[in-house]
Amino acid sequence: MRMTNMYLKTLREVPAEAEIPSHIWLLRAGMIRKLVSGVYGFMPLGRRVLQKIEAIVRQEMDAKGGQEILMSAIQPAELWQESGRWYAYGPEMWRLRDRNDRDFCLGPTHEEIFTDIVRSEVDSYRQLPLNLYQIQTKYRDEKRPRFGLMRSREFIMKDAYSFDRDWEGLDKSYNEMYDAYEKVFERCGLTFRAVEADTGAIGGSDSHEFCALSEYGESEIAYCEQCSMAATTEKAACVDDTPDSAEMLPLELVHTPGTKTIADVAAFLGIDHKQTIKALLFEVFQQEYRYVAVFIRGDRELNMTKLINALNIPEHAIEFADEAAMGAETGAVGGFTGPVGLRNCKIVVDSELTGAKNLCAGACKEDYHMLNVNYGRDYTGDIVTDLKLTKEGYPCPQCQGHIKITRGIEVGQVFKLGTKYSEAMHAYYKDENMQEKVIVMGCYGIGISRTLAAIVEQHHDKDGIIWPLAVAPYHAIITVVNAADAVQMQLAEKIYDELQKEGVEVLLDDRDERPGVKFKDADLIGIPIRITVGKKAADGIVEYKMRGDEKSTDKTASEATAVVLELVRPYI
Ligand SMILES: [Zn+2]
């Protein structure tokens, strides 16, 4: 491609909206353009990188027996109502209605659609196992779209769905996909970690998230330095403190004026935060009950995902309660709520509290706390479970080690769905004995556009992007220092032709620009190999440089061509 013909607009300034490197560099390098908040288009160079990533994904999916199809982004509400997710998905789902008042959504994911296909076309065990996938545009109406492609409202995703005869079959399919994902992200040049994850709105049993390590990642990862334990902090189990063997002391009401927080009351009474019970009050939007009071030790933090899972409600169906309104119905008192004396609400207790003794809790009375509150004697929970958010230094749930915390960008996730969708939507097959059996499913996603952003997060410097060869929009760029010089242009054209003939993707910077501008652009757009044709062209000498290198080396044109070919051959 000659740069005189190329549609490329690089930016000298950092766009005001861009905060993180991938967003900044992708905009500045003219790879993406914003249409509206959270919605981006891909310009020629960006489109080429997307296609490279897609090709890698296709190869690894096909290698595992996946078959590509392409379904519509528009999905009828009826299928989502069948699975129960029309309500469960909440405001993130982009809903629309046709001229006949029929409801549709722009698909945030495709479990229902794939299940629908398979239930109507698969009836025999002979047709299973099956793995179908697509690379397609998805929609999620994010509350706070940000970070460019990282959290956008429209994005490109590869989603695959496996259909098996039984759970052993699913285990095998899951492991195959896990393996394919490792290969995909390795080939894309990402440093990543596969960690246990919550199944969220998708549902199912086991799940792993593939996280590209990055300080700007929105996934927090807890891992152990001594063993293989690694999970998102949403998912990571927490170890309860050892139960206290002290005698239970009598309940005591104490006057604690104005001490509305754990810190206040602990300071006022001169006790450790560990000796207190923290109350968190919620309103839930569903029928059986309206209010939820959560109790957890004062020094711990509540893990919302664990709470939502314990309550078995969708994420959007819970909010912090209005304390006055809740108080009127349940006896809760803002800043002084404790588990003793509460009524008309669901009480959820962190498992650790059952073994703790003689704690201080709110007395459900303004300016009063209770001392020596004990689980079992003074209160019980409707639900008792681990609600703790893990933190750096907490004990590892699997060994004697300590938890470390890091951040990552979720670029892929695999789920064992089991029979959640196939049961709800009646996807059955007949086994060898003509018995009806439910199909066992898995689903597997890769955020293609997010992977592109993650690659930039991990591969850039102060001058721009440094694409790994496997996904670079072009492998090499030939920069002609003076395009008006016939000798320089002639040599550049010769190298350009030779490399193209061999299948190398080459840019020829033949623009009438100052060399400084050309070098800056080459660095900005991150082409891995640069050949500069300048004054020494008369002697057949060029400068050869890798994008990440400090200095260039002189080579004859044919040496340079040979080196490029050797480097690029594995990628063409
Ligand atoms: Zn461990």
Topology:
Layout lengths: L20 H8 L3 E5 L2 E4 L1 H20 L3 E2 L5 E3 H7 L1 H4 L5 E4 L5 E4 L4 H11 L8 E10 L14 E11 L2 H21 L4 E5 L10 E7 L5 E6 L5 E3 L19 E4 L6 H8 L7 E8 L6 E7 L6 H8 L6 E3 L2 H8 L15 E5 L8 E7 L2 E6 L9 E3 L17 E16 L1 H5 L3 E3 L5 E3 L1 E8 H11 L1 E2 L2 E2 L10 E5 L5 H16 L4 E4 L5 H11 L3 E5 L7 E6 L6 E4 H12 L4
Parallel strand pairs: 3-7, 15-17, 17-20, 27-28, 27-29
Antiparallel strand pairs: 1-2, 4-6, 5-6, 7-8, 8-24, 9-10, 10-21, 11-12, 11-21, 13-19, 14-15, 14-16, 18-19, 21-24, 22-23, 25-26, 29-30, 30-31
Helix pairs in contact: 1-11, 2-6, 2-11, 12-14
Gyration radius (Cα, Å) is: 29 Å
Q: Look up the CATH topology of the largest domain.
A: BirA Bifunctional Protein, domain 2
Largest sheet: 9 strands, mixed
Task: Please bin the fraction of helical residues.
Answer: 25-40%
Q: Given this structure, which CATH class of the largest domain is correct?
A: Alpha Beta
Structural class of the helices, strands and pairings? Answer: alpha+beta
> How many DSSP H or I helices?
14
Strand content: 25-35%
Low-confidence stretches: none
**CATH A-level architecture of the largest domain:** 2-Layer Sandwich
Describe this entry's structure for a reader.
The strands form eight sheets. Strands 3, 7, 8, 9, 10, 11, 12, 21 and 24 form a nine-stranded mixed sheet that branches. The chain has a five-stranded mixed sheet with strand order 16-14-15-17-20, with helices on both faces. The chain has a five-stranded mixed sheet with strand order 28-27-29-30-31, with helices on both faces. The protein is built from 14 helices and 31 strands. It folds into three domains: 37-190 and 418-456, BirA Bifunctional Protein, domain 2 (2-Layer Sandwich), CATH 3.30.930.10; 252-385, YbaK protein, CATH 3.90.960.10; 474-571, 3-Layer(aba) Sandwich (Rossmann fold). The longest helix has 21 residues, at 167-187. Helix 1 packs across helix 11 (448-458), helix 2 (44-63) runs antiparallel to helix 6 (167-187) and helix 12 (486-501) runs parallel beside helix 14. By secondary structure, the chain is an alpha+beta fold. The two termini are 17 Å apart. The structure holds zinc ion.
